[in-house]
Write the structure tokens for this entry.
Amino acid sequence: MAFITSEKTFEPGLRHRQLVAAAQQIPPIRTAIVHPCDEISLAGAFEAADEKLIIPVLVGPQVKIRRAAEKAARSLDGIELIDAPHSHAAADKAVELARAGIVEALMKGALHTDEVMGAVVRPDTGLRTERRISHVFVFDVPHYPKPLLITDAAINIYPDLNDKRDIVQNAIDLALALGVKSPKVAILSAVETVNSKIISTIDAAALCKMADRGQIIGGILDGPLAFDNAISKEAAAAKNIASAVAGDADILVTPDLEAGNMLAKQLVYFAGAEAAGVVIGARVPIMLTSRADGNLARIASCAVAQLFDHRIRRAAP
């Protein structure tokens, strides 16, 4: 079942609303909201609950959460509230709930990303799997004819080749969960040819060969590709690039966090794109919502996490 249409449209936020509509067809997931002690994070959790995407479990200092609820004019009646004295303790408790299977996802509240992820990656008590943890943005770009995934712009600073293998596989798995069949993956660099002086071009070539050998599955890879060749058929044709991916990418894999973060923010602030996103590769999906995110971005991130969780559970033996 394809959850997202690929028709060209310029209606802002349409594809994210399609994600939400698709997620509403499956049961909501119990989600630990970590330290939701301000109006923004608490309101985001309640809005996602209103849309039947999550069942929120609020984890943090009860007094602060109740005060935030009063400011947001929201009732806590019927909402599970688990007390934790401070943000670090809230992150630890939320991870503990996920390890025990009591919640199926985490959502960042009013605390730093490092606090949440520090608890997630802790060797003995965290949520690590054999897969590298990575972040994937899901963009609705007004002038691109389909959803566009970008990775990794939030977690892995300078990933090596093995890290990139997992980053690519995580993104493919998410795209499949969103209904994209055989997602097309563009491994980005500054140029479209292999150059020994540009490490990202060598990594790109190696990743493509890894896909040929079955070390990466479920998608179609090509790279290195410059950004224009990855998303513009005209640019690819001008460079005589014959590729199933060039000009039609579903996923853009950036060389490092700096490039990914700048690209993602440029799409938001220059191109008017709507961003949603999720961290995957851990035992449960994790939503690292930002204070700068709008309501639709927060809700769409919950929909992405819900759809991904649903696919993973269906695939489980």
Summary: The longest helix spans residues 295-315.
